[in-house]
Amino acid sequence: MLRWFSIDEPVVERVLRDLRRCPVPKFQVLRLTDLPVEVLDNVINLVSIAQAKLLSSTCRLLNNISQGHIFQVSSCLCFHLIFDD
Question: Which of 25, 32, 33, 50 to pair with 6, CA 20 to 30 A apart?
Fold first, then answer.
Protein backbone atom coordinates (compact mmCIF):
# COMPACT_ATOMS: atom_id res chain seq x y z
CA MET A 1 0.00 0.00 0.00
CA LEU A 2 1.33 3.40 -0.99
CA ARG A 3 1.41 6.11 1.66
CA TRP A 4 1.33 9.60 0.13
CA PHE A 5 1.88 11.33 3.42
CA SER A 6 4.82 9.32 4.71
CA ILE A 7 7.62 11.44 6.12
CA ASP A 8 11.19 10.39 6.38
CA GLU A 9 12.13 10.46 10.08
CA PRO A 10 15.69 11.78 9.62
CA VAL A 11 14.32 14.69 7.60
CA VAL A 12 11.87 15.57 10.37
CA GLU A 13 14.62 15.39 12.95
CA ARG A 14 16.84 17.64 10.85
CA VAL A 15 14.08 20.20 10.43
CA LEU A 16 13.32 20.20 14.15
CA ARG A 17 17.02 20.54 14.96
CA ASP A 18 17.34 23.48 12.56
CA LEU A 19 14.26 25.14 14.06
CA ARG A 20 15.71 24.80 17.56
CA ARG A 21 18.99 26.28 16.39
CA CYS A 22 17.42 29.15 14.46
CA PRO A 23 13.80 29.70 15.60
CA VAL A 24 13.33 33.02 13.77
CA PRO A 25 12.89 32.53 10.03
CA LYS A 26 15.37 34.19 7.73
CA PHE A 27 13.57 36.66 5.51
CA GLN A 28 14.66 37.69 2.06
CA VAL A 29 16.95 40.69 2.24
CA LEU A 30 16.71 41.72 -1.42
CA ARG A 31 14.43 44.61 -2.20
CA LEU A 32 13.06 46.13 -5.38
CA THR A 33 15.57 48.95 -5.09
CA ASP A 34 18.43 46.43 -5.12
CA LEU A 35 17.77 45.87 -8.82
CA PRO A 36 19.90 47.76 -11.35
CA VAL A 37 18.60 51.18 -12.39
CA GLU A 38 18.18 49.95 -15.98
CA VAL A 39 15.79 47.22 -14.83
CA LEU A 40 13.85 49.64 -12.65
CA ASP A 41 13.57 52.02 -15.60
CA ASN A 42 12.11 49.22 -17.72
CA VAL A 43 9.63 48.41 -14.95
CA ILE A 44 8.56 52.06 -14.72
CA ASN A 45 8.08 52.15 -18.49
CA LEU A 46 5.62 49.25 -18.24
CA VAL A 47 3.30 50.82 -15.68
CA SER A 48 0.70 53.54 -16.15
CA ILE A 49 1.35 57.18 -15.25
CA ALA A 50 -0.78 56.82 -12.11
CA GLN A 51 1.25 53.79 -11.01
CA ALA A 52 4.51 55.58 -11.84
CA LYS A 53 3.38 58.46 -9.61
CA LEU A 54 2.69 56.01 -6.80
CA LEU A 55 6.10 54.38 -7.24
CA SER A 56 7.75 57.80 -7.25
CA SER A 57 6.31 58.51 -3.81
CA THR A 58 7.96 55.48 -2.19
CA CYS A 59 11.63 56.49 -2.13
CA ARG A 60 14.14 58.87 -3.67
CA LEU A 61 15.57 56.31 -6.12
CA LEU A 62 12.19 55.38 -7.58
CA ASN A 63 11.23 59.05 -7.60
CA ASN A 64 14.27 59.93 -9.70
CA ILE A 65 13.59 57.11 -12.14
CA SER A 66 9.82 57.74 -12.34
CA GLN A 67 10.02 61.47 -12.93
CA GLY A 68 11.51 61.03 -16.40
CA HIS A 69 8.70 58.70 -17.39
CA ILE A 70 5.92 60.81 -15.84
CA PHE A 71 7.02 64.09 -17.40
CA GLN A 72 8.01 62.59 -20.75
CA VAL A 73 4.52 61.15 -21.20
CA SER A 74 2.89 64.32 -19.85
CA SER A 75 4.90 66.59 -22.16
CA CYS A 76 4.06 64.43 -25.18
CA LEU A 77 0.39 64.60 -24.24
CA CYS A 78 0.53 68.39 -23.88
CA PHE A 79 2.37 68.70 -27.21
CA HIS A 80 -0.39 66.76 -28.98
CA LEU A 81 -3.12 68.77 -27.29
CA ILE A 82 -1.53 72.07 -28.40
CA PHE A 83 -0.50 71.19 -31.95
CA ASP A 84 -3.13 68.69 -33.07
CA ASP A 85 -5.81 71.30 -33.87
Answer: 25
